[in-house]
Amino acid sequence: MTPSIETSGAAIVFNGQAGRDYTPAMEAILSDATFQAARSAITSWPGYAPTPLVFMPKLAHALGVGSIAYKDESGRFGLGSFKALGGAYAVMRLLMKRIADETGQTPEMADLFEGRFSEIADTLTVTCATDGNHGRSVAWGAKLFGCRCVIFIHKDVSEGRKAAIEAFGARVVRSAGNYDDSVREAQETATREGWFVVSDTSYPGYRDVPANVMQGYEMMAFEALAQMDDLPTHLILQTGVGGMAAAVAAHVWRRTAPHRPKVILADPEAAACWYETIAAGHPVTVGGDLDTLMAGLACGEVSELAYDILKTGADVVVRLPDRAAIDAMKVLAEGACGDKPVVAGESAVAGIAALAALMEDTEAAARLELGPRSRVLVFGTEGDTDPAVYARLAGRTGDEVRAAATAWEKRQ
Ligand SMILES: Cc1ncc(COP(=O)(O)O)c(C=O)c1O
User: Fold this and answer.
1) Is 310 part of any domain?
2) Residues 221-251: pLDDT tens digits?
3) Among residues 45, 49, 276, 344, which is most buried (max CB within 10 A)?
4) Per the database record, which ranges form the Tryptophan synthase beta chain-like PALP domain (predicted)?
């Protein structure tokens, strides 16, 4: 059965600057050493477990590729998205630095969990702007390590997502404008109040914290490679500010240097800053209200650090209409082709939708060598992070899909 993912309206742009060298400038952002530090911390956190890699052989066959591996982040630390890896790790690093500055000692992980420096942790307020998932991670990290937390959300963030952040004890402030306006408001308030911004995006003069965030994200790529028998030939990575895509691309690139798999970015039509940036050959800001259903990808400005990696690390960008994402959510929820049903949220499915769009365009697919021998790795970056939105779009609830997945497993 051919999955019905409506991709008309999708657009594809190839990157004229794509390259093969993982340069010293990239090493300075993401290296094996910085990843090992993140890995040893994150794997020691309570509740750590690798997330599953789900193979979708029937969907792969229907779309015309050799294999599709879907890294299902819906269960990550019980937060519902891969973002748990990044913001919380950056909070931990900030706290460790403050403890080292104040005591002259480098704390151990156990010191943090046993509250040995709780008085210092209580003096640290972390803040960020978020479309939901990053703020949830920062709030969770603040709670885990005993810091204070204030999170800024923009006008389109759903009440469900707001409540999920508040559940970790953070104060949530709703700003009037779009995502990029909330980023500025968080920064200005932090400067005034002496708080620390834990942003997942970087800009001139602000790179260390978002680099830590990206080092945490690499965990997802590390696990995925360990779960595959052969290296992927293609990565398809959805982009908000691009931090996730850059972290995954960089990790896989270091493991495969001087070669690397083809890197395909997937950007929503209403917030296509990566599409415009790669088309122009320099960072381009996209304005407007960035109103896409793919809430996690609703960003108008690329992250500086991500651009440093993806300006040569990306081969192509696919710009997707929301319709394609909704269809892909349904395909995965139904297990439409006979594969295991998966709870894939609005921002999780862009990789599958982009693959469908590329396979419709025979010229683009041929240029990318996408075909029956391709091993495609996609990242299902969230589950039903907003259960009501998910049920409305996927046509069934997350619980129904999880029950269907269990039944599917029993039949195997
Ligand atoms: C579920 C989900 N997927 C993907 C992304 C994109 O990550 P980035 O902004 O680092 O590109 C986000 C960002 O919030 C997200 O929440």
Assistant:
1) yes
2) 999 999 999 999 999 999 999 999 999 999 9
3) 344
4) 46-378
